[in-house]
Design goal:
Blueprint: E1 2-6, H1 13-25, E2 30-33, H2 52-59, E3 66-68, H3 76-81, E4 90-95, E5 98-103, E6 120-124, E7 130-137, E8 140-147, E9 160-165, E10 168-173, E11 178-183
Helix pairs in contact: 1-2
Amino acid sequence: MKYFVMSDLHGSAYYTKKLLDIYKAGEYEKLLLLGDLLYHGPRNDLPKDYAPKEVIAMLNPLKDEILAVRGNCDAEVDQMVLDFPIMADYALLDLGSRSIFLSHGHVYNHESFPLRKNGDVFLQGHTHLPVAEKKERDGKFYFHLNPGSASLPKEGNPNSYGVLTEKGFAIYTLDGEVLKEVEF
């Protein structure tokens, strides 16, 4: 299994196109979208080529390949124009022997998601910061992952995306350089 992970597009047609070109060139089982797809939000600057209608036109044809969760900038009006569900606060995915808990990060975070067993994974967006680390909570270990932001990275980080497999998680720049990675 191999999943392409994007978060925090914030309506950028430029970065959505770049990332979807990378996605289409690879062999991925699904495209995981971790929220904040169309709207830039009141706290963010406009991303490069802010064009939510273009982002809609790029994502909708991939509706059967997408698993998405709702971000804090996603609203019911966004769901009305997207052909795949985006309003869930979380999703669960089995990755071999691991459970993957996907959430944007504004409702559930790496310290509050339901940790069931050693080696589970919390995959989030929201902070716009790339994270790939092993952590401990309540006597169990888990993996905290965040692909960073596709369009509005913070703290000097590059625009990025993630690739999730049974063996681990890697965060890549748009030039294909590995930014961070963790093995499971």
